[in-house]
Amino acid sequence: MPSSTPSATSSAAFTKPATSAVQRQRVSSQPQRPKTSSSLVGQKSITTSSRPQTTTTCSATTLNCEAIENKIRKNIQHSWTGILKACQEKDVSKLGEIPVSDFLDIAEKFNLDLSEAEIKQITTKYDLNKNGRFAYYNFLQSCILLLKPQESSLLQRVIIQKPQKPMSPGPQSLSFFSAMLRIQPQILRCWRPMKRTFKSCDESHTGLLPIADFRQILHEYSINLTEEELFNILEYYDKTLSSKISYNDFLRAFIQ
User: Is the pLDDT of residue 215 over 50?
Assistant: First the structure.
């Protein structure tokens, strides 16, 4: 390499036109040029700034999972108790997640009939902590409970009226999912007469009931909540601590 004076080097550094991030990344990837500590720092920042593409891929994967979940929903609803039990046996730490390999074994055991591409998408979506583990509680509640509002067609028959004031839900904790999944079979057996009882107690027709009345009606239909289960359900449905609960929102979570 021809030697150059310090003044010439500094002059060239200031007169050289600015290169783009892509060009700098290509130059920095060449193995024959030794890197100083400052150049390594620059390379790290370039690598970090070039990650929006990964985010786009993940969001597209999440959107595609709706079709997969709709495909296996009926199968899940018929055998979710067995799936939940199998997952809980693998979840020694009680964290609501298990290794992806364990979930694949369970999915095969219960004949969920997922292709390799569908498995990749759904395991990516429910690897919430990006640690190679599958959040089975979130997966089951998405297939069994209808906690997110869905758009309905104008020709579709409305089973349960939407509230005039949209609900602002609270946290969806693991204990909340557990309580909702436990009472789901009982709710499905008696939700129609329960709905009529809720409405008969709602004299002001607001769609809201005091917590004591709500719990008493559940008790009448042999649905007994522990104090912890009631607390977690109220934490979700009564985020503003109004001491009232929207019974339509509650029932809609179970009626698909």
Answer: yes
